[in-house]
């Protein structure tokens, strides 16, 4: 077995099926899987299979792929039964916003009453 490319992100290794994940939905261009540290009753990550560091980079380079990420996020909400009660789609961009994996990803959150967001309360 070869060593993983150190420039690969965790998400690229999940996409390649090198690391197991609970996959919720997949398209030709996106993969949706459950977050291992959920911040809501339902917490699914949607990633494009092509790596871009953040949502701004993705929007500038491939707006159609960004639209597919959003479409996949909505499909996940449908599959998870979140549409009627509501759900949140969040992109963290940069470390100050809480981005820890620099492969753009949308968080689909729901399944319970969500709190407000904004200033760090820690």
TrEMBL record:
Motif Histidine triad motif, residue range(s) on this chain: 103-107
Cited Pfam families: HIT
Active site residues per record: 105 (tele-amp-histidine intermediate)
Xref: PROSITE patterns: HIT_2 (PS51084)
One Gene Ontology term of the molecular function aspect: catalytic activity
Residues in HIT domain copies: 10-119
UniProt-listed PANTHER family: HISTIDINE TRIAD HIT PROTEIN
Protein name (database record): Histidine triad (HIT) family protein
Taxonomic path: Bacteria, Bacillati, Actinomycetota, Actinomycetes, Pseudonocardiales
